[in-house]
Amino acid sequence: MTDSSDFINACTHAIGEAYVITTDDDKAPYLTDQRQRFTGQAIAVVKPGNTAEVAAIVRLCNQFKVPLVPQGGNTGLVLGSVPDTKGNAIVLSLSRLNRIRAVDPVNHTITVEAGTILQHVQEAAEAASRLYPLSLAAEGSCTIGGNLATNAGGTGVLRYGNTRELCLGLEVVTAQGEIMEGLRGLRKDNTGYDLRDLFIGAEGTLGVITAAVMKIFPLPKSQLTALVALRTPDEALRLLTLAQGHCGAALTGFELMSDLCLQLVAKHMQHLTFPFSIHHAHYVLLELSDSESEAHASAMLEALLASALENDICQDAVLASSSSQSKTLWNWRESISSAQAKEGKNIKHDISLPISRIAEFITVTDALLQQHFPECRNVTFGHLGDGNLHYNVSPAIGYSIDLFLEQQSHINRVVHDSVHQFGGSISAEHGIGALKRDALLHYKSSVEISLMKTIKHALDPQNLMNPGKVL
Ligand code: FAD
Prior knowledge:
The protein has helices spanning 4-15, 24-31, 51-64, 118-127, 144-149, 157-160, 163-166, 195-199, 233-247, 259-268, 294-310, 323-334, 336-343, 358-372, 401-406, 408-421, 437-443, 446-459, and strands spanning 20-21, 44-46, 68-71, 90-93, 100-104, 109-113, 130-131, 167-174, 179-182, 207-215, 217-218, 222-230, 251-258, 282-290, 316-319, 350-352, 376-383, 388-395. It is of the alpha+beta class and 471 residues long. The strands form four sheets. It has a seven-stranded antiparallel β-sheet with strand order 15-12-14-13-17-18-16, with helices on both faces. The chain has a five-stranded antiparallel β-sheet with strand order 5-6-10-8-9, with helices on both faces. A four-stranded mixed β-sheet has the order 1-2-4-3, with helices on both faces. A hairpin with a 4-residue loop joins strand 5 (100-104) and strand 6 (109-113). The structure holds flavin-adenine dinucleotide. Flavin-adenine dinucleotide (FAD) is lined by residues 34, 69-77, 80-81, 94, 114, 136-138, 142-143, 145-147, 149-150, 152-154, 203-204, 208-209, 337, 429-430, 433, 466, 469.
């Protein structure tokens, strides 16, 4: 049994009283998840100011056998960044580790501490005329450490990859409180097991990420956005193949949205004007980033749309002719989640599939849901270019939300079984956390689960690092 007052005193001694928060009011913002679905308990919220202090706190956690939950911006969507209700853990907030340590425009790297807000990294890269391409709707509050721990995706994955692909090196405090110094900015390094990749996507269950070397890129000379109306997801796939053929690496965004998504945005975000004269069944928001010139980008986009019309793929299209029009088009895409939340509670599925099978998956799974749960409305959108769908489900208008949520586990099972049959993944972007742990155990093979448990036990034998998450 931990004597928590001895532990708190030791933490206070290590990093200063101001950074060990123990009062209920001050702890509260760190204990509830982003969507306000769950509130946990903690002995304290501890906020070290540098890597050595993180290591000191982790060593104290070892000594007193206190579990710890690393937390960045607390924007995660799977209950990974909040403690459980036992009340025996601490929240280890990385928010004070927020320095940009270096920008190297020749090596095309930026070295940042884990608690740095994503938007600040984008801004620091831009100040050096470079692009840090990770972009997601929570970028004003999520942190690089959280992005790495969840291997976040976002809208630029098609061209630049997930956070894992953007990372060249990590500094990590191990579960024993040692510091792994791996801040190497190397694009080639074949020196044994890839320890860096173990910590990426581990959701804080193997160690605490304290800093990282991330890739940056030349700023594009021009970015163009278009919204294309289509009849079916299959047409969207044909458009994707066409766009990849015409534009190659210049294609940086390819987002699918069903009409219901845009109807919800139009209903709940009334300041936005619907861009077409009539509604269509589906839409694709596509973005080109060109390294030559605006004229070159426009010519590429016009050729693509002409080819889409010729092939009877495109029903209508709107082109943004300024960056503010482009932002407005992206607003339609980025407002879908909030519009769906304003419509009421809903059930989310963050799934990925082989791109070639997405259209068939949507047809089959829509039909299955209608057959088993006719009171469902499918709100389907996502990063089609990455094979990632937000296959969300809302209740029919007027249907009892309580009755709807009672069916959540059945709805999840129908969707995830279908994902599994199509060779997909039940978590494309958001991770496993506490929310999808049972589903992970159900769908992942016993060999994979056993290897994951072996790694967890080897790196964190006392099970103090974010226990109850992932495994
Ligand atoms: P937190 O929520 O604080 O933590 C997330 C997990 O990482 C937890 O398990 C935590 O323990 C662990 N962790 C945090 N920091 C560290 C660290 N330094 N070391 C070890 N472990 C750590 N995700 C996408 O992939 N793509 C999207 O497009 C996307 N859009 C989003 C839009 C909105 C509006 C919101 C609210 C979320 C979205 N997300 C998206 C979810 C996404 O996971 C997070 O926004 C982000 O990557 C998490 O960063 P964070 O700093 O908030 O981490």
